Amino acid sequence: MKTETYRVKVGQKVKLSDWNTDDNAGLKKREGKKRAKALQDELALWQERLYAESGQALLVVLQARDAGGKDGTVKHVFDAFNPNGIQVANFKVPTEDEQAHDFLWRVHAKTPRKGMIAVFNRSHYEDVLVTRVHDLIDRPTAQRRLEHIQRFEELLTDSGTRVLKFYLHVSKDEQKERLQARLDDPEKLWKFSEADLAERGHWEAYTRAFQDALTTSTVAAPWYVIPADHKWFRNLLISEILLETLKDMNPDFPETNLNPKKITIE
Q1: Of 63, 94, 170, 212, which residue is most buried, by most CB within 10 angstroms?
Q2: Which residues form the Polyphosphate kinase-2-related domain (predicted)?
Q3: pTM of this prediction?
Q4: 227 has which bridge partners?
Q5: Contact partners, residue 241, CB within 8 Å, separation at least 6
Q6: Whether the predicted pLDDT of 234 surpasses 90
């Protein structure tokens, strides 16, 4: 699969309507799910190498509209990894203490230590999305924040943390179906919030905000627009990109002076 097709190029002005939400790269669901499952063992091996080496880290950013599939991605893609080597952070409405600091203060503490993979289920980008859509900041302030974010991600990269950013791209019709499914299923009703309907009413404003956020794609911290109407394809594509990235990082098991032939376990 040509994963670079879904990568936002450096300096590219993004128009989300140019990206298909129901793309499946010509694959059938059964084939795609089989391929995704086959990748899990390989992902687990590369995570083990990353953890053992403890010289690099990986930060994965997930952003999407409501019902876009962030939780599902964490559940179905990252379950390939050993829990000891992964952490998941979710950034909600800032607390009073967090609001008293700069907007990146609460985020920096959640970035991964060397050897670890961190997943941001929502992230520092919320501060240029929700805040902008609801007129808590103006566009010039949002632009300055995007510049701060790029420098922040450069700092992480310079410190040995690779950054991957995924925008899960769902259609308005697909979001409607998923929200309705939550209403119809008693076991999913807890996930439904009337606030989601209010946010749905700002569809175009969120589109503009996401398009601006995606311009922060760089060589070291790229954005990928992931077609997310098909959950199985979303999982497959993210798994492919994760594997490519880990292989490119090329972590290795640390060398040791131990000679196993000279050790006897009584």
Answers
A1: 170
A2: 27-252
A3: 0.95
A4: 169
A5: 3, 6, 164, 166, 224
A6: yes
Cβ neighbours of residue 179 closer than 8 Å, sequence gap 6 or more: 66, 67, 192, 196, 197, 200
pLDDT digits (tens, 9 = 90+) for 107-146: 999 999 999 999 999 999 999 999 999 999 999 999 999 9
DSSP codes of every residue in 143-205: HHHHHHHHHHHHHHHHTTEEEEEEEEE--HHHHHHHHHHHHH-TTTGGG--HHHHHHHTTHHH
Q: Please, what CATH class does the domain formed by 3-123+149-171+216-250 belong to?
A: alpha beta
CA distance 79 to 200: 30
Contacts of 81 (CB under 8 A, 6+ apart): 43, 44, 47, 117
> Which residue's entry shows tokens 């999305």?
129
Nearest one of 223, 230, 191, 237 to 77, comparing CA atoms: 237
> Cα(32)–Cα(233) distance, rounded to whole angstroms?
6
Q: Where are the beta strands (DSSP E) in the chain?
A: 57-64, 86-90, 117-121, 161-169, 223-227
Domain extents for the chain? 3-123+149-171+216-250
Cα atoms in the Cβ-side hemisphere of radius 13 Å centred on 167: 30
Residue 102 sits at φ, ψ, to 5 deg, of -65, 160
Q: Shortest CA distance to 68 belongs to which of 240, 234, 243, 238?
A: 234
As a residue count, the chain comes to 266
Question: What is the arithmetic mean of pLDDT over 180-201?
Answer: 92
pLDDT in tens, 5-57: 999 999 999 999 999 999 999 999 999 999 999 999 999 999 999 999 999 99
